[in-house]
């Protein structure tokens, strides 16, 4: 059989991926075979050591990396995740929870006192005791085949990211056997179960799969929830299966311009957060792992994204601040793990670093410059 012309291959990719996005074609992949024996619970970002290093800096130097005010208002806690708006433009109080924790945690670490830490802990205990956001309002966005549980479950997965980073910190301050941290852990475990039980379990879009991989992976690593870790690995491995040998992601064949950059950031950035969880749990070579022969690694696709973004005018990767997902905050984790490499140098050339507070992307952990960026200049 003759090979398909390039333009027909592109059409086929677009049709298949579009059908996948709107109707779904798989459940969460089988993750019974793990690449290594994960060792959990572990710390993903070593918060106490980071706090000590930050506190050793002069206040003005800390303020270049971290937010230096505690004006964060914690939103009211609701029992369900309800989305208001359209599928591509919605709001919810659950999203406000994500942003609030992402904003407050780095301040508490860099500038806060014991009272600030207790405020964070008490708020999360309140969320746990009220069983906040464990229910979902079934949003029917009017798209044939789109399960109403899908998008609320995706938001629940996004909640696991700041919750995991905060829980990592609180367990180092109070201990894993503290009654408060136990209640928070039980709530996080319940969130995992709620997400896994979402409707028919169909996941729409590679960016959604990656977000759940990140949420499950991070929570599994810091809490010791092996069910979450296994689910996260299944999702992560599926996400890598759509990466070509040169690192090109399938989303570049579905979208163009800044729309392509948006979805690529969401998909690849979340894969990086998931990889951080798996690396911390013992799979140190996760960034070099390939789903099969002829596919690319996460190293490959991060490098490719930096090159690709340079061809797109107005690329979001040049924006150091974004309230939700269109930013490079996830790249700080990569820079911490791989200082001085060719890809890391390319990231530094791509990111437009601000003069104050560092890089912020709300759903990728917030002020990640504060949390993990190397304090000493990396060797070049």
Description:
With 380 residues, the chain is mostly helical. Helix content is 53%, strand content 4%. It has one domain: Alpha/alpha barrel (Glycosyltransferase). A two-stranded parallel sheet has the order 1-4. A two-stranded antiparallel sheet has the order 2-3. The protein has a two-stranded parallel ribbon with strand order 5-6. Helix 8 packs antiparallel against helix 9. The longest helix is centred in the middle third of the chain and has 25 residues. It is globular. 47% of the residues are buried. The N terminus is likely disordered.
Helix segment count? 15
CATH fold descriptor: Glycosyltransferase
Describe the sheet with the most strands: 2 strands, parallel
In the CATH hierarchy, the architecture is: Alpha/alpha barrel
What is the strand content?
under 5%
Write the SSE topology.
Layout: H1 6-23, H2 47-55, H3 59-63, E1 80-81, E2 84-86, E3 89-91, H4 93-110, H5 114-129, E4 135-136, H6 150-174, H7 179-196, H8 206-223, H9 226-240, H10 251-254, H11 257-280, H12 298-309, E5 321-322, H13 331-337, H14 342-350, E6 360-361, H15 368-372
Parallel strand pairs: 1-4, 5-6
Antiparallel strand pairs: 2-3
Helix pairs in contact: 4-6, 5-7, 6-7, 6-8, 8-9, 8-11, 9-11, 11-12, 12-14
Summarize this, please?
The protein has 380 residues and is mainly α. 53% of the residues lie in helices and 4% in strands. It is globular and about 50 Å long.
């Amino acid at each position: 059989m003759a090979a398909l012309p390039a333009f027909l291959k592109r059409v086929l990719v677009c049709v298949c991926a579009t059908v996948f996005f709107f109707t779904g074609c798989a459940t969460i992949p089988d993750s019974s075979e793990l690449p290594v024996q994960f060792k959990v619970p572990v710390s993903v970002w070593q918060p106490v050591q980071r706090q000590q290093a930050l506190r050793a800096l002069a206040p003005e130097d800390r303020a270049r990396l971290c937010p230096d005010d505690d004006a964060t208002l914690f939103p009211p806690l609701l029992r369900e995740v309800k989305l208001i708006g359209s599928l591509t433009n919605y709001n919810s109080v659950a999203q406000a929870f994500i942003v609030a924790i992402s904003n407050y945690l780095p301040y508490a670490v860099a500038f806060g006192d014991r009272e600030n830490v207790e405020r964070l802990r008490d708020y999360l205990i309140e969320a746990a005791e009220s069983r906040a956001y464990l229910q979902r309002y079934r949003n029917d966005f009017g798209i044939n085949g789109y399960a109403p549980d899908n998008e609320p479950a995706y938001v629940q997965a996004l909640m696991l990211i700041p919750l995991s980073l905060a829980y990592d910190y609180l367990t180092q301050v109070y201990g894993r056997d503290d009654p408060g941290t136990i209640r928070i852990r039980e709530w996080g475990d319940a969130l995992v179960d709620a997400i896994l039980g979402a409707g028919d379990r169909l996941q729409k879009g590679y960016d959604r799969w990656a977000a759940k991989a990140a949420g499950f992976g991070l929570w599994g690593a810091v809490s010791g929830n092996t069910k979450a870790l296994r689910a996260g690995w299944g999702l992560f491995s599926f996400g890598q299966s759509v990466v070509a040998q040169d690192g090109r992601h399938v989303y570049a064949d579905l979208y163009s311009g800044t729309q392509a950059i948006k979805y690529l950031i969401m998909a690849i950035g979340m894969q990086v957060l998931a990889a951080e969880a798996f690396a911390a749990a013992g799979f140190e070579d996760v960034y070099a792992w390939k789903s099969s022969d002829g596919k690319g690694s996460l190293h490959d696709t991060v490098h490719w994204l930096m090159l690709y973004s340079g061809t797109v005018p107005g690329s979001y990767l040049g924006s150091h601040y974004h309230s939700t997902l269109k930013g490079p905050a996830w790249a700080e984790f990569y820079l911490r793990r791989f200082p001085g490499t060719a890809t890391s140098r390319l990231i530094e050339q791509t990111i437009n670093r601000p003069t104050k507070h560092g890089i912020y992307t709300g759903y990728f952990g917030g002020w990640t410059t504060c949390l993990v960026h190397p304090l000493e200049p990396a060797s070049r």
